[in-house]
């Protein structure tokens, strides 16, 4: 399957901000219809493959990028469009990922020597192109499905000595306690927002202050504007404050799970409100972890002497809203499965804790950072462990079903490409003529 590996590559989210001055960022190495591929893009993708332990050569990188450009070109022809709301949501998510990866906005600015607004602007086109390519690809394969008979046939075609090894997997439940904002930090944040409120009341522009001070990456670029919200969409504290304000009025300082808000309601319409805000978050690295550690230590002892079950303790005490309703089970965000590979792909702190544990053991409290950046502690319970083994239909049907469907979709996409390349203009630079794109 010539498209199998590169087809997977274009589905992976990546961003490439210019940092390496050694690459030629100006040379165009390919043109696909009205879309260009730069030499720097090819080299960035090759380096990314090395970093991900999945090396590709420059021809494979070029082909992957060409496939993405071809999908985007055809999407334009076929009127396949990514909605602005979805683009903004994905763009904000990418920026939040960067904040988590680099620790803070300040670190990002120092790393790239560019403002957050500039980086976000540069990232926008990349994200839109990737999302358009993904949507076009989904359109091509949207009617594909797989039957149990096809899964079995796919499995039977795999030579027995080539069956994939399924790595050791574990099912883990967790109880999370978040570190609380100290009185000192809380007072500092309230004082800062109170000063900003005073400046607005004295005539300064709310939107400009939001752009300068707000720590809500999704709205600060728009001057804190959150658009229209229906009742129930925002956290209760925010909604209650926003809906009690007259148009144009400022709220007192509002505390929520996200931090501290200064809110200005712009307009009310029945059960909807249009508001903007300035958000300040606590410095999570300065929070005191003693309280959650002591609490979880005590809770662990209660569970171990059967004073309370782990399941009941989750419902009563865990502060991780994403896992409480699922019995504390940690879900793999990439696959949606409750089975987590016990390998280097796992968060290091969690891996080194779980790897030596025996079934039914509860860990000591360990540091934890939530997906949205909050700091806390957690204890985990090893509920199940599936040792590494060769794939089989009994234990691994869902994985094999996914493999079989991906294979089927690859064939559909490959057929589509062979037809599509005749409908768009393709020109490859002489330096890359050795690369036989699209199997030509």
Question: What does this molecule look like?
Answer:
There is one protein chain. The chain has 440 residues and is α+β, with helices and mostly antiparallel strands. It folds into three domains: 4-148 and 394-439, Triger factor/SurA peptide-binding fold (Orthogonal Bundle), CATH 1.10.4030.10; 168-180 and 286-387, Chitinase A, domain 3 (Roll), CATH 3.10.50.40; 183-284, Roll (Chitinase A, domain 3), CATH 3.10.50. The protein has 16 helices and 13 strands. It has helices at 4-11, 39-51, 58-77, 84-102, 105-112, 116-141, 148-157, 183-201, 206-213, 217-220, 236-244, 290-304, 310-317, 321-324, 348-354, 397-420; strands spanning 28-32, 35-38, 165-166, 169-178, 225-230, 254-256, 259-269, 272-280, 340-341, 366-369, 375-386, 389-390, 426-428. A four-stranded antiparallel β-sheet has the order 9-4-11-10. The protein has a four-stranded antiparallel β-sheet with strand order 5-8-7-6, sandwiched between helices. A three-stranded antiparallel β-sheet has the order 2-1-13. Helix 7 crosses helix 16. The two termini are 14 Å apart. The relative contact order is 0.14.
């Amino acid at each position: 399957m010539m498209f199998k590996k590169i087809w997977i590559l274009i589905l992976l989210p990546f961003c490439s901000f210019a940092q390496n001055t050694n690459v030629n960022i100006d040379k165009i190495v390919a043109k696909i219809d009205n879309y260009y591929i730069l030499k720097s893009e090819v080299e960035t993708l090759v380096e990314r493959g090395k970093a991900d332990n999945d090396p590709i050569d420059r021809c494979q990188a070029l082909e992957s990028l060409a496939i993405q450009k071809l999908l985007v070109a055809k999407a334009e022809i076929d009127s396949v469009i990514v909605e602005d709301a979805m683009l903004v949501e994905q763009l904000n998510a990418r920026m939040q990922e960067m904040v988590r990866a680099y620790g803070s906005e300040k670190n990002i600015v120092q790393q790239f020597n560019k403002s957050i607004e500039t980086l976000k602007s540069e990232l926008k086109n990349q994200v839109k192109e990737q999302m358009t390519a993904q949507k076009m690809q989904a359109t091509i394969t949207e009617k594909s499905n797989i039957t149990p008979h096809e899964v079995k046939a796919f499995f039977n075609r795999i030579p027995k000595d080539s069956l994939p090894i399924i790595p050791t997997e574990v099912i883990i439940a967790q109880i999370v306690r978040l570190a609380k904002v100290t009185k000192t930090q809380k007072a500092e944040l309230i004082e800062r927002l109170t000063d900003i409120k005073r400046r607005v009341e004295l005539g300064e522009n709310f939107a400009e202050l939001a752009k300068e001070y707000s720590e809500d990456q999704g709205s600060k670029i728009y001057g804190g504007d959150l658009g229209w919200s229906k009742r129930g969409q925002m956290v209760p504290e925010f909604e209650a404050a926003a809906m009690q304000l007259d148009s144009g009025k400022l709220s007192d300082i509002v505390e929520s799970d996200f931090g501290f808000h200064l809110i200005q309601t712009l307009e009310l319409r029945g059960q909807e409100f249009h508001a903007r805000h300035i958000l300040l978050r606590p410095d999570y690295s300065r929070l005191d972890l003693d309280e959650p550690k002591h609490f979880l230590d005590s809770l662990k002892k209660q569970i171990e002497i059967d004073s309370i079950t782990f399941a009941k303790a989750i419902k009563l005490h865990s502060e991780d809203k994403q896992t409480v309703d699922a019995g504390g089970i940690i879900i793999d965000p990439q696959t949606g499965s409750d089975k987590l590979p016990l390998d280097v792909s796992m968060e290091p702190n969690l891996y080194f804790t779980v790897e030596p544990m025996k079934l039914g053991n509860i860990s000591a409290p360990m540091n934890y950072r939530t997906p949205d950046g909050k700091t806390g502690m957690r204890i985990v319970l090893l509920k199940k462990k599936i040792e590494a083994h060769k794939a089989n239909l009994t234990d691994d049907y869902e994985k094999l079903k996914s493999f079989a469907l991906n294979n089927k979709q690859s064939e559909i996409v490959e057929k589509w490409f062979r037809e599509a390349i005749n409908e768009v203009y393709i020109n490859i630079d002489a330096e890359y003529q050795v690369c036989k794109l699209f199997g030509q």
